[in-house]
Amino acid sequence: MTPSPAGRRAAARVATLGPGFAFLTVFLLVPLALVLSYTVFRRGRFGGIVYEPTGENFARLADPLYLDVVLGSVRLAAVTTLLALLLGYPTAYMIARLPGRWKAIALVAVVLPFWTNFLIRTYAWIVLLNSQGPVNSGLEALGLGPVELLYTDGAIVAGLLYAYLPLMILPLYSAIERLDPQLREASANLGARPARTFWSVTLPLSLPGVLTGCVFVFVPSLGNFVIPELLGGGRRIMVGNLIRDQFLKARDWPFGSVLALAVIAVLVLLLFAQAWAGRRAGRNG
Amino acid sequence: MNTLISIEGVSRRFGDVTALDSVSLDIRQGEFFALLGPSGCGKTTLLRILAGFEEPDAGSVRLDGADLLAVPAHRRPVNLMFQSYALFPHMSVEKNVAYGLEREKLPRQEIRRRVSEVLETVGLAAHARRRPHQLSGGQRQRVALARAIVKRPRLLLLDEPLSALDKKVRAEMQLELKRLQHDVGITFVVVTHDQEEAMSLADRIAVMQGGRVEQIDAPVALYDRPRTPFVADFIGANNLFAGTVSGGGLEVSGLGVLPAPTAGLPEGAQALLAVRPERVRLGQGTLTGTVVDVSFYGGVSHVALSVPGHGGHVLVATQGPARVETGTEIELGWDAADGVVIAADDAAVENGAPV
């Protein structure tokens, strides 16, 4: 018996979607479910868990000590995202308006840092910012230094910004590049100066790209624990460091899971906000 | 009538391509003017220069005698209805229309009044709150038109205004554009590759080709008295014969002397003869041909004949159904006065004929 067309279509769908789904189920959903289940049990003495239900893991989250870490991380990630947007938008805008060949070159330049190891690039910042580094030497020569640059919140933001700026530029670029250039001409034709055209036409129509870029920068910034450690010198603990420490140092898996859940909750909220705003903007397009 | 726009010696090159080659023309106050030509003839470049999106390499453009090129695009009293309409997708119909008035910093009351007036005029008052994507193609075009005329420009540019519309909407829009132009008294310049669009809308047409203006005339004059081989070929259907003036007609190699109004031309001059299909008579005449195709269009029929010695087919249009059949051998001819002779330089004749 030959399978019906509908049956064949279903088989094709399983064949194409199946492997990806299987991978995500085994390596994302199952671990995620495990981590979530840890949140309601007691910690084991040397890591792991004891299967006795308890609510105290969540209660600890309200401890100002931990709440400060979470809120402080959100603040640093938000500052990073805002700076990335302010730096990335003009860059993306200019790239989108370059002639074809230069566009490709500029885009390669934007992703070029990804070709070197993340740790090496972050160590480079230590060299740059330390008290004998080139930045401080320059400041000293001008009579302004030395200034303590390394191991500050500013250094963390600079590191995060440096690491994730391309993730802001690329979606912005693709949103701006897609805009019909005739819309800008129409705006000018109707009497708008270039600045007005930007605020009334270009910016509102590129909002979906702005939202995507912000999520792309905010999410990994919030969870990052390498940059705060290397450039913050351990003085500023971000939620990523806290989670890692709970699992690897304090051996408190349940509380680590609660913290992870808190971060996931923030991100899910953010993604919903983005989807909602994106749909609103999309209806315009 | 007064001259509104005066274009003089305007040239524009893009790399090796000459888009405009020393174009000069005047557009009069209140007229409906068309720039007509095949794609790549330079008409769109000229339009973009008038709108201020493009600058010429040489030449001048004056509006009311004042240099228009010195004025940036956003300050010109010139509005454009884009071929793609270019409506702002994130704004409602009324916001789109109000956009240009808001830039003039007019009082809110006046903006609201003028927007609703113009939406009334184009028949979209009921759709003021809709977004462009909720409208049909014809409705979008009306919004684009309303957005351009609400500014009361001195000059309204229309880029291929009818090309995207289906046949019925097209006829409607055509009438509406003419009515509107009459009512508001704005000078209209339409840019198109479609001769029907140009002929039906415009008071005067500039036919362009290869960055140059070939002829500027009223539609009827353009049809009846083409002055260049290109215009004779481009506007409507024409039977073209290249030859030399001889014995009161045009001697065409392979066909003999054909009836042609050659008065005023010296014997032996190179010239091109153009005869409209509806001017050719079947049944008697100087040529003999074989009918190769008969097409019936309702009001008229087209008969294509192959004439020995002539490269292409000779096209004949007759009223009603044709009374000949494919394969028939028949005589054909025309009165000398029904042909148009274009005394052109040799090169032009060579290039322009035969079709």
Automatic annotation (TrEMBL), chain A:
Gene Ontology biological-process entries: transmembrane transport
Annotated transmembrane regions: 21-41, 69-92, 104-129, 149-176, 197-219, 253-273
The entry's keywords: Cell membrane, Membrane, Transmembrane, Transmembrane helix, Transport
InterPro entries: MetI-like (IPR000515), MetI-like_sf (IPR035906)
Subcellular compartments: Cell membrane
Annotated ABC transmembrane type-1 domain residues: 70-276
Residue runs in coiled coils: none
Bilayer topology: Multi-pass membrane protein
GO CC, alphabetical: plasma membrane
Family assignment from sequence similarity: Belongs to the binding-protein-dependent transport system permease family. CysTW subfamily.
Alphabetized PANTHER family for the sequence: INNER MEMBRANE ABC TRANSPORTER PERMEASE PROTEIN YDCU-RELATED (PTHR42929:SF1), INNER MEMBRANE ABC TRANSPORTER PERMEASE PROTEIN YDCU-RELATED-RELATED (PTHR42929)
Name this polypeptide is given: Spermidine/putrescine ABC transporter permease
Automatic annotation (TrEMBL), chain B:
InterPro entries (UniProt xref): AAA+_ATPase, ABC_SmlMolc_Importer, ABC_transporter-like_ATP-bd, ABC_transporter-like_CS, Mo/tungstate-bd_C_term_dom, NA-bd_OB-fold, P-loop_NTPase, PotA-like
GO molecular function: ABC-type polyamine transporter activity; ATP binding; ATP hydrolysis activity
Short name of one Pfam family: TOBE_2
SUPFAM superfamilies for the chain: MOP-like, P-loop containing nucleoside triphosphate hydrolases
Coiled-coil region(s): none
Record-annotated ABC transporter domain positions: 5-235
The keyword Transmembrane helix belongs to this UniProt entry's keyword annotation: no
Catalytic activity: ATP + H2O + polyamine-[polyamine-binding protein]Side 1 = ADP + phosphate + polyamineSide 2 + [polyamine-binding protein]Side 1
Keywords: ATP-binding, Cell membrane, Membrane, Nucleotide-binding, Translocase, Transport
Subunit structure, as described in the record: The complex is composed of two ATP-binding proteins (PotA), two transmembrane proteins (PotB and PotC) and a solute-binding protein (PotD).
Similarity comment text for this entry: Belongs to the ABC transporter superfamily. Spermidine/putrescine importer (TC 3.A.1.11.1) family.
Name used for this protein in its record: Spermidine/putrescine import ATP-binding protein PotA
Species assigned in the record: Planotetraspora thailandica
Name of the gene this protein is made from: potA
